Amino acid sequence: MKKFLPVGVHIFAEMINGNFVYVDKTRWIYEMARIPQAYYFLSRPRRFGKSLLVSTLRALFEGRKDLFKGLWIENSDWTWKPHPVVQIDFSEIQITDAGTLEQSLLAALDQLAEPYAIRLEQNLLANKFVELLTELSKKFGEKAVILIDEYDKPIISHLGKGEAGMQIAGQSRELLKNFFGVLKGANVANFIRFVFITGISKFSKVGIFSDLNNLEELSMQSDYAELLGYTDDEISRYFKDYVPALAEANGLSDEDCLENLRTWYNGYRFSQKDAKVYNPFSILNVLKSRSFKTFWFETATPSFLVNLIKERDYPIPNIENLQVREATFSTYDLENLQLEALLFQTGYITIHGYDGFLYRLGYPNQEVKNSFLSYLYDNLVKLDNITLKEQYIRLHQYLAQEDMNQFIETVNAILAAIPYPQLQGKDESYYHTVFYMMLAASGVLVLTEPLSSHGRVDMAVEFKDKVYIVELKCNQSATEAIRQIREKRYHEKYLQSGRKIFLLGINFDTRERAIKDWRLETL
């Protein structure tokens, strides 16, 4: 294999000099950088290549042409003129509280000036930032480039930590607002060549960036939909030496291996343009380990999101089929945290479609869906019998083997282990949610309320060779559930699929906290 997989490598120079695979994104970078004075903002989920992009921009503006040999931009009209670069990574800044944040930024500015033999005299944060930019530009004779990575770390690291955490987040927001506002000031505008700010969250412009109203938002621009992440074509082009090894290790053909990669790791879409990308972190790890696992999800726990879901009693099955207006994506603020916007920006849901008015959102792929619902299940479904907590894993096996007796028995065992107060007074939607989380967490491909031409079925469970059309009832009958499936013809969309079709009616008895009766029919 000619090049190494860059797992954990996010410094551009190290990637090129170390003979690692670099997926060439320089044609998009060129379009950003060629404008004489530009201010950009880009949000993307964690582990999506933001830090590598910042590092690449730094090398570009430092004029390090040798690093770009063989890349798209080498044959462009880029001038390779060196500029002074101010790079701040907020993941390396102390952020215990707003006071610590301010002192850490003051120290960071002094450190940035030191290699250039510049001694900063100002004591106030905003004034020191202005002084650094002006002095650098004067010394170089060129305008400065400002690169900000993980700008939102001082805020989001305090969310989900009670009222005290929210207060620190608010104070940090005000400090950042004043800090970034320096970049718009008339006294520094003539010293700035390029500004790029990136992070996970997209805070509204009336928040952090209200004083920086010339900041161009790239996050949902179609022209930059493929700037970060890997496309199908890029997987085939840059990782062609690794896919056959992954296929062989898993007993798959190359074609089936690529299809598995799409199912598990592709699907992120960030604009109206139907352009889907893979999460780079997951792809690099699956190719290195030669095993299909949940790599991205395990790098962080979404405890804050789970707390919000619990607090708002959010209907979990609805996450699969959300419809929102574009305004949803631009109302992210501390005083108005919308769960849909949070889920989108953090990468747990993505765009599935756009009809000109509404965006349709859902899970990007099986890695995220299965992992997230498994995490929700573990945190929201509290069981008296801990040994039963892992029993849901077998549900996938029972459905694959068409062993319905074991399937129903396992579901009932789990329901029986849920403490009575947790189930007391719950209606059909609660049982629907728990049943849905069990199935999805088991690793099966379950679609909740998939739309047919005649309405919406509760859920469909899909395998390569079969599909279960499931209708759930509470305190009614399984016969009634089957009758509704047939009457509404929920199964019609699968008739030409070549798969075996099962109709599964399930009736929960809320008094006995169990499946009272069930019925399975084959078409």
Plain-language structure description:
With 523 residues, the chain is α/β, with parallel strands linked by helices. It is 39% helix and 15% strand. The strands form four sheets. Strands 2-3-4-1-5 form a five-stranded parallel β-sheet. It has a five-stranded mixed β-sheet with strand order 9-12-13-14-15, sandwiched between helices. α4 (98-113) packs parallel to α5 (125-140), α10 packs across α11 and α15 packs across α19.
Supply database-style keywords.
single chain; 523 residues; alpha/beta; Rossmann fold; Trna Endonuclease, Chain: A, domain 1; 5-stranded parallel beta sheet; 5-stranded mixed beta sheet; 15 strands; 15% strand; globular
Please give the structural blueprint.
Layout: H1 12-17, H2 26-33, E1 38-43, H3 50-61, E2 85-89, H4 98-113, H5 125-140, E3 144-149, H6 153-156, H7 162-181, H8 186-189, E4 192-199, E5 216-217, H9 232-238, H10 243-249, H11 254-265, H12 280-289, H13 303-311, E6 322-324, H14 339-346, E7 350-354, E8 359-362, H15 366-380, H16 393-400, H17 404-417, H18 420-423, H19 428-441, E9 445-448, E10 451-452, E11 455-456, E12 459-462, E13 466-474, H20 478-488, E14 500-509, E15 514-522
Parallel strand pairs: 1-4, 1-5, 2-3, 3-4, 13-14
Antiparallel strand pairs: 6-8, 7-8, 9-12, 10-11, 12-13, 14-15
Task: Quote the CATH topology of the largest domain.
Answer: Rossmann fold
Query: How many alpha or pi helices?
Result: 20
Quick one: CATH class of the largest domain? Alpha Beta
CATH architecture of the largest domain: 3-Layer(aba) Sandwich
Give the total of beta strands. 15
pLDDT below 50 for ≥5 consecutive residues: which ranges? 451-455
Shape, per Cα inertia axes? globular
Number of domains: 3
* Main sheet: strands, sense, barrel: 5 strands, parallel
Helix content: 25-40%
Query: How large is the radius of gyration?
Result: 26 Å
The structure class reads alpha/beta
N-C termini distance: 49 Å
Largest sheet, spatial ordering of strands: 2-3-4-1-5
Name the beta content range: 15-25%
Would you tell me the overall average pLDDT?
90
